Amino acid sequence: MIRSLLARKPIEALLAEGENPNGLRRVLGPGDLIMLAIGAVIGAGIFSSIGTAAAGEILPSGVVVRYGAGPALVVSFLLLGLVCGLAALCYAELASMIPQAGSAYAYSYATLGEMIAWIIGWDLILEYAVGNIAVAVAWSGYFSSFLTAFGVTLPAWITHGYRTALLSSDPAVHSLLETAPRVAGIPILVNIPAFLIVMAITWLLMRGVRESARANNIMVVIKLLVLTLFVIVGAMHIDTSNYVPFAPNGWRGIHQGAAIVFFAYIGFDAISTAAEETKNPQRNLPIGILGGLAICTVIYIVIGYVLTGMVPYQQLGSAADPLAFALKATGMTNIAKIVALGAVFSMAAVLLVFQYGQPRIFFAMARDGLLPHWASKLHGKYRTPYITTILTGVFVAFWSLIGDAGETYDLTNIGTLFAFALVCTGVIVLRYTDPDRPRPFRVPFVHFVGIVGAALCIFVMKGLPHLAWVRFGWWLLIGLVLYVLYGYGHSTLRKHRPPVPVEPPPPIGR
User: Fold this and answer.
1) Which of 20-24, 39-43, 416-420, 492-496 has the highest mean pLDDT?
2) Which of 103, 156, 240, 339 has a CA that sits 20 to 30 A from residue 34's CA?
């Protein structure tokens, strides 16, 4: 029984699936992958959760959810750069060996067995789909701020979800529970902009990967120009007294600040879900993963240093748009408008990359029989997994209407860190179980990198609130129940059957 649950899928079978002529279309090069990485990583973390990481989070009741890092936020970024750098090395080796759309799910299937692979596939929903709820809510905040700067103020009850108002420490936002319109006594608090941007991104992704990559490249260029502007003008308004005390809550603040701002770094691994749409993936995937992460780490450290020097860190906690807030606080209102516009484009790019990744993981799981066959169907014209793209979009859009970014950050972070830890473990396991297989990219000092990488992921997980662990436990339990009820009985590996075939796309207009 245990042996069948931990049965590993042969790498040869995974490679064959990726070369199916009826499968996904290979159109992406190394430049596209780096731009996808920047598109995913530079987003809600730097434009939204960075404020919470610096200032901490206190509930209206006075309960401390997490302590802030203060100006030592740059140390939090360095810590995360180390954690993610080790994980990225492991991702690069496995992605070059197993260039398959399933990402960590596929790597776990080849190294740790089917049940662990299912857990990772289920867990990755937290990173991509649930994580995108937080991004959509953050996008809405910046979009509303941008409109307000030009004299257009949307009613608060259509720009704040119910749980955002319920959990906010800002009295003005929390009071929406009393002032919002009511139906049958229930306050109507729905985040309409968040809903609309998710549906727009879903439509774009339906058009094909080449078109989506072009849109992402444009948005990435805009966000880099805006961040460069922020650094230049912000550096001219640094008050060094804001750096004292440097670490107001000591190592605990740095640790817990890193745990929340880890959300900023997730996304580099989304590049691995593009494996079956990448030209020469053995060469280009490591370039995209490692190159994108290195560029983003430098950007985060510079932004964190400038931001905490511009205003006292305590003021950043209640700001939905901390970068624009810091510019306004130092008298640069016009520049704040430009940054708000840049954030709108920036987080739209994050939404695009994350919404891109989730359907492809479902696609890979459906080929293995762990999800229903319809999840592996491709669009006749665009060769995209259109059914799961639509379902993912509807799920994220609905929860964006009522959800809160803060609690979503925690759930996304703990799920992603867990996946990273297993990838770090898997790369070591594969060195023993398949030592002779060609490795286009090899992790240097693999035992050190894998063990320390996994340990650091677990260490950062410990910095998350207790409630995040409870919710994560329930999430995994639900996933295991679904595996028992469906995945176990339909697994093509267990039944010794070939993968569920990816049908040739039907003729256009059929």
Assistant:
1) 416-420
2) 339
Q: Is 278 exposed, middle or buried (0-12, 13-18, 19+ CB in 10 A)?
A: buried
Q: Is the dihedral of CA 274, 275, 279, 281 positive or negative?
A: positive
Confidence of residue 50 (pLDDT cuts 50, 70, 90): confident
Amino acid at 469: W
String of b and e for 182-214 (b: at least 16 CB within 10 Å)? eeeeebebbbbbbbebbbebbebbbebbeebbe
Between CA 252 and CA 479 the distance in angstroms is 32
Which of the 8 DSSP states describes residue 487?
I
Which structure tokens are listed for 238? 């640094």
Asked if residues 420 and 453 have their Cβ atoms less than 8 Å apart, the reply is yes
CA 267 from centre of chain: 5
Residue 28 phi/psi, 5-degree rounding, is: -95, 140
Residue 502, pLDDT above cutoff 60:
no
Q: Are 396 and 421 contacting, i.e. CB atoms less than 8 angstroms apart?
A: no
Contact 52, 260 (CB under 8 A): yes
Dig out the tokens for 22 from the structure.
Answer: 């009826």
Question: How far is it, in rounded angstroms, from Cα 135 to Cα 145?
Answer: 15
Helix (H, G, I), strand (E, B) or coil at 56: strand
Neighbours of 1 (CB within 10 A): 5
* Residue recorded with tokens 């987003």: 43
4: enclosing H helix or E strand: helix 2-5
Q: Considering only CA atoms, give the Rg of the chain.
A: 22
* Mean of pLDDT values over 54-65: 79
3-state secondary structure of 139: helix
Question: Residue 54 and residue 254: Cα distance in Å, rounded?
Answer: 9
